[in-house]
Amino acid sequence: MESKSFWKSGHKPSLFGAFLYFDISFMIWGMLGPLAVVIAMDYPMTPLEKANLVALPILGGSILRLVLGFMSDYIGPKLTAQIGMGVTLIPLLLGWLWVDSLSQLYVVALLLGVAGASFAAALPLAGQWYPKEHQGLAMGIAGAGNSGTVLATLFANRLATHFGSWEVVFGLAIIPIVVVFILFSIFARNSPNRPAPKKLSEYGTLLKQRDAWVFCAFYCVTFGGFVGLCNYLTIFFNTQYGLSPVRAADITTFCVIAGSFFRPVGGYLADKIGGTRMLTFLYTGACVMLVGVSFLPPLPVVVVMLFLGMMCLGAGNGSVFQLVPQRFGNEIGLMTGIVGAAGGLGGYALPLILGQLYSSYQSYTPGFVILSLIAAASMLLVLVMQSKWRGQWLKKSFTSKTESTSLSS
Questions:
Q1: Which residues of the chain have pLDDT under 70?
Q2: What is the CA radius of gyration of the chain?
Q3: CA dist., res. 185 & res. 78, Å (int)
Q4: Residue 365: CB partners within 8 Å, gap ≥ 6?
Q5: Burial 302-332 (b: 16+ CB within 10 A, else e)
Q6: Residue 194 CB partners (closer than 8 Å, separation 6+)
Q7: Residue 106: what pLDDT?
Q8: Of 180, 198, 231, which is closest to residue 60 (Cα–Cα)?
Q9: Is the pTM of this model over 0.70?
Q10: What are the contacts of 103-106 at 24+ separation with CB within 8 A?
Q11: DSSP state of 40
């Protein structure tokens, strides 16, 4: 019954369009993660240089999410998404036809951030069509477009090996982004209930509120952990376990699937039992799995641990954005950009942490120990904020017994 009411409460073509846009953009955003081990054959890199290469698109996405978040609020998420897809063609063309040095590749890597900034348009486009009791699932479905990373890890190195050139992968990526642009333009529509545009100064007003920073911290860990690992795991498997570029990317794909497809599950379950309760479970699970990975067990064991850990982080992304619209419903466009930028910064930091500590200690153990401690600290923060929010907006955001039950925590 609830599933039926969900599908009747919004606009399915826009939800589909948001997912498709986010999915193909994430594929392009994550291409350098698997390709890094292939590119290193042409441009030998230190562990830290590899980490920097895969981290730069995440940094670019973090910065540009603020820009696209403001644009989404001011000119609407549909037009913002169309502009984003158009600009994405620039780094693809440069990567295909222009790059002939590592420094130029760094420029392309940073510009690929515009694809990662798609988050700031896709989620408002989907979420604004749905009432609060279904926004966790709606934004989770749209956010499941991060499954585009699966396409990158599954095909990027295969195509580079088949054509004998990693540059051609950038050229081939132009085809799906053009197709998606056409489909998106046909199917997606802005919600008639879209809030009135906010002024740029209102970013500052939001950032004066403690809860905005708390959500940034939550998403910095869940999304940052997910996207950072997506971009770095191919390097990890290649370096630690000696796997070939294609084999390392294949195993990364398996881990990425967990985080991608459990995002809507996290949003759905958060609608049922409460976002804060879900986050408590998920941060705890991520912490335990990352501790296990730090022991660098045999490959089958570490793959299972990373699969479960990524599952927790992916579901955590959906859980965070089940809460955000309830606290900042009228500022969802701005908050999507702000929180998304924080998530991007977390994703930028993760490869650098692993790369730097591996360079210093010739082991990935210290890096994964630190990541597990960050997850544990996040779980404690949820417990603290849960008690404060329960007496404030968490209960007040509901107008019926059913809504209250779905978010009480």
A1: 1-10, 129, 131-136, 139, 143-145, 198, 200, 332-333, 391-409
A2: 20
A3: 8
A4: 294, 295, 296
A5: bbebbbbbbbbbbbbbbbbbbbbbbbbbebb
A6: 76, 77, 124, 128
A7: 94
A8: 231
A9: yes
A10: 105/39, 105/43, 105/53, 106/52, 106/53, 106/56
A11: H
